[in-house]
Design goal:
The protein is α+β, with helices and mostly antiparallel strands. The chain has 3 domains: 4-249, ATPase, nucleotide binding domain (Nucleotidyltransferase, domain 5, 2-Layer Sandwich), CATH 3.30.420; 263-320 and 422-499, Nucleotidyltransferase, domain 5; 325-419 and 503-528, Methane Monooxygenase Hydroxylase, Chain G, domain 1 (Up-down Bundle), CATH 1.20.58.2240. 38% of the residues lie in helices and 18% in strands. The protein is built from 17 helices and 20 strands. A hairpin with a 3-residue loop joins β12 (278-283) and β13 (287-293). The longest helix has 28 residues, at 399-426. The protein is globular, with a radius of gyration of 22 Å. The termini are far apart.
């Protein structure tokens, strides 16, 4: 009986695969690393064939460990970062790199090479931008495509397809060039609530009149929960599956995570009542705040609202921080007492911080403050040029000094989340509960701070791999295991543990938040001095 699901999550540095049963239980998972090349400052590139090989290896291992036959798998789903993959007219790899190597055919999501193109498009004030917060990030696909056309004309001339990474994976799996509504609405300025969804005037403004031809873009998209088709023979053999497995349309990784943690809130009710008081925080290398609403509530610096990006008849909105886990890694790497930011080293730092806080009665660095915008400010300022600020450094190069800086960086990250949530309230959103998933649930400092600084109840799901779970939920509908996304969310949710804020600690963070806002103002004052 085909009632198992395979979910694949492609992150910044790895491909992960999980096998789930129809009730959402994770039976097995596996992980494979993927390569990233950094040929220049602000340039980051992948090899898409390396990603596919890592995907196949992880899936084969997970299915083998789960102990189920290929004939027991109903569907496979993919989620991925919003990286851009290029292929020529024959489907071969096509360079997006200044090195000219065709195997470097993927611009990684965090790549900021197209910052000038993003600024240029943002300055137009085109109505399409109302559905991307009034501006465009260099992490989105239109600025990246503009950069490729301008800086790599030979690549543009040879192009036959450009894919969002999740769509590339479904193409490899099925041979179909169909595109996901989730990826195109979120990262390609496709307006799913309008007909046609592609705005020709906006494409002309970007100098991309020929984009649909060069990228192989269809007019229509495939909704989450539908099936693109079944696995092709070659892909099935490479994945260790069979050609009876349905392939779900790809999801943006953060949106899969949001569905994974909020699916249980749906309660099986087809209109998702009560969902709007809940918000998901997906924390990893970066952090994303994701919410679903019945009505569009646009606002500056928000990504979206996107119609039907995951749930039918719902709008999805996203805010985020461009560097969170990456910021903590950077702090560890740059400090004299740090080193390569391994799991073990992070653990030692977190343990020592707990000891220092116990010794000092809680606060261990009251005069140290961090603005976490080391890779720009995605929300709520929509300023990719923003930089980080550290106030209160001394000559201390000890391990305890590293711990204090790490602690205050965590505080700065959490205060940034509060800043985003308060901005969302100004646009009409009202959130009572924050559901946290991703790598940040493994950092007890961040989980504590999210509750104490934001004033929201924090729920950590029992299924720590909520991104994989959300992808499996969508695959369950594509494979006919569950009737619709609402039913899948309800049936496959594993519950969670709630954490409430500590009133005494929360009061102390009010002072920190005032200083956080003052530092934002002072940073702008310094810029204005010229």
């Amino acid at each position: 009986m085909r009632d198992h699901l395979v979910a694949v999550d492609i992150g910044t540095g790895s491909a992960r695969a999980g096998v789930f049963d129809r009730d959402g239980r994770l039976l097995a998972k596996a992980k494979r690393p993927i390569l990233m090349f950094r040929p220049r400052e602000n340039h980051a590139e992948h090899d898409s064939e390396d990603i596919w090989a890592a995907t196949c290896g992880a899936v084969r291992e997970a299915v083998r460990e789960a102990g189920i036959p290929a004939s027991g798998v109903a569907a496979i789903g993919f989620d991925a970062t919003c990286s851009l993959v290029a292929r020529d007219r024959d489907g071969h790899q096509l360079t997006v790199s200044t090195t000219g190597e065709d195997r470097r055919d993927t611009i990684v999501w965090l790549d900021h090479r197209a910052i000038e193109e993003a600024d240029e498009l943002s300055a137009t004030g085109h109505p399409v931008l109302e559905f991307s917060g009034g501006s465009l990030s260099p992490e989105m696909e239109m600025p990246k495509l503009m950069w490729v056309k301008r800086r790599l004309p030979e690549t543009w001339a040879r192009a036959g397809s450009f894919f969002d990474l999740a769509d590339f994976l479904t193409w490899k799996a099925t041979g179909s060039a169909a595109r996901s509504r989730c990826t195109l609405t979120a990262k390609w300025n496709y307006l799913a609530h309008e007909n046609p969804g592609w705005n020709a005037d906006f494409l002309r403004l970007a100098g991309l009149e020929d984009l649909r031809e060069k990228a192989g873009l269809p007019e229509e998209t495939v909704r989450a929960g539908e099936s693109i088709g079944t696995l092709g023979e070659k892909a099935a053999a490479e994945l260790g599956l069979d050609t009876g497995v349905h392939v779900a349309p790809g999801l943006i990784d953060a949106y899969a995570g949001a569905f994974g943690v909020l699916g249980g809130v749906l309660g099986g009710v087809a209109d998702g009542r009560g969902l709007e008081s809940h918000v998901a925080l997906i924390g990893g290398t970066s952090s994303c705040i994701v919410a679903f609403t019945h009505e569009p509530k646009p606002g500056r610096s928000l990504w979206g609202p996107y119609h039907g990006a995951v749930l039918p008849e719902h709008w999805l909105v996203e805010g985020g921080q461009s560097a969170t886990g990456a910021l903590l890694d950077h702090v560890v790497r740059m400090h004299a007492a740090g080193g390569e930011p391994s799991v073990d080293l992070h653990g030692r730092i977190i343990t020592r911080i707990a000891e220092l806080r116990a010794e000092k009665g809680g606060e261990i660095a009251p005069d140290l403050h961090v603005l976490p915008d080391f890779h720009g400010n995605r929300s709520p300022l929509a300023d990719p040029h923003a930089t980080g600020v550290v106030s209160g450094l001394t000559l201390d190069t000890s391990f305890d000094g590293l711990c204090r800086l790490y602690w205050r960086s965590c505080v700065g990250i959490a205060l940034g989340i509060r800043h985003i949530l308060e901005t969302l309230e100004g646009y009409g959103y009202r959130f009572e509960t924050l559901h946290v998933t991703g790598g940040h649930v493994n950092n007890p400092l961040l989980v504590e701070l999210y509750a104490d600084t934001t004033g929201r109840n924090v729920v950590v799901p029992e299924t720590r791999d909520a991104v994989l779970l959300g992808t499996a939920m969508a695959a369950a509908v594509a494979g006919g295991v569950h009737e619709n996304l609402f039913a899948a969310g309800h049936a496959m949710d594993g519950g969670g543990t709630e954490r409430r804020r500590d009133p005494a600690r929360a009061q102390k963070y009010e002072r920190d938040y005032r200083r956080f806002l003052a530092m934002l103002r002072h940073r702008e004052e310094l810029k204005e001095l010229g």
